[in-house]
UniProtKB/TrEMBL annotation:
<dbReference type="InterPro" id="IPR015946">
    <property type="entry name" value="KH_dom-like_a/b"/>
</dbReference>
<comment type="function">
    <text>Participates in transcription termination.</text>
</comment>
<dbReference type="InterPro" id="IPR030842">
    <property type="entry name" value="TF_NusA_bacterial"/>
</dbReference>
<keyword id="KW-0694">RNA-binding</keyword>
<dbReference type="GO" id="GO:0006353">
    <property type="term" value="P:DNA-templated transcription termination"/>
</dbReference>
<feature type="domain" description="KH type-2">
    <location>
        <begin position="13"/>
        <end position="72"/>
    </location>
</feature>
<feature type="domain" description="NusA-like second KH">
    <location>
        <begin position="76"/>
        <end position="137"/>
    </location>
</feature>
<dbReference type="GO" id="GO:0031564">
    <property type="term" value="P:transcription antitermination"/>
</dbReference>
<keyword id="KW-0963">Cytoplasm</keyword>
<dbReference type="InterPro" id="IPR010212">
    <property type="entry name" value="NusA_arc"/>
</dbReference>
<dbReference type="InterPro" id="IPR009019">
    <property type="entry name" value="KH_sf_prok-type"/>
</dbReference>
<dbReference type="Pfam" id="PF07650">
    <property type="entry name" value="KH_2"/>
</dbReference>
<dbReference type="GO" id="GO:0003723">
    <property type="term" value="F:RNA binding"/>
</dbReference>
<keyword id="KW-0804">Transcription</keyword>
<dbReference type="Pfam" id="PF26594">
    <property type="entry name" value="KH_NusA_2nd"/>
</dbReference>
<dbReference type="GO" id="GO:0005829">
    <property type="term" value="C:cytosol"/>
</dbReference>
<dbReference type="InterPro" id="IPR004044">
    <property type="entry name" value="KH_dom_type_2"/>
</dbReference>
């Protein structure tokens, strides 16, 4: 699937890559928050020592920043998007729609959902853009 980025998202990606040295594959921009999809294996560069690099990005954008590491498979992608929740298994079901069922540690259900549903909604948006997944449900 081809993702079309807005001018704002492209500017945010350029700033992110300049500050972190990591590659951003995608970017979701909300009013008070930006989520970057970071290239596989580059998450430590994006975060930086003790989180200082990502904090610099937050300061420059004046927004909260969240990071998701990209993956080659839809199952691993969904697990990454729900992090730091512990995801034991992800099953993709393709019927009338494509749904990812994520088996999350019971103690981490709230973490997977996030404040006001932010984490799971971001995971859903990214999964749809990257893997044509229509929904993510927690099991």
């Amino acid at each position: 699937m081809r993702v079309t980025l807005s001018d704002t998202a492209l500017r945010h990606i350029a700033l992110f890559e300049d500050v972190t040295g990591a590659t951003a594959v995608d970017c979701l921009v909300d009013d008070d928050r930006v989520c970057f999809l970071v290239a596989t294996g580059e998450m430590s560069d994006a975060i930086g020592p003790d989180g200082t690099t990502v904090e610099q990005v937050e300061e420059r954008l004046d927004k909260r920043v969240s990071l998701v590491e990209n993956a080659d498979t839809a199952e691993l992608f969904v697990a990454n998007a729900l992090a730091p929740a512990v995801v034991h298994n992800v099953t993709i079901s393709e019927n009338a729609s494509t749904v990812a069922y994520a088996e999350v540690d019971r103690a981490d259900t709230g973490v997977a959902i996030g404040r006001d549903g932010e984490t799971i909604e971001t995971a859903r948006r990214l999964a749809e853009r990257q893997f044509d997944i229509d929904d993510i449900e927690l099991a």
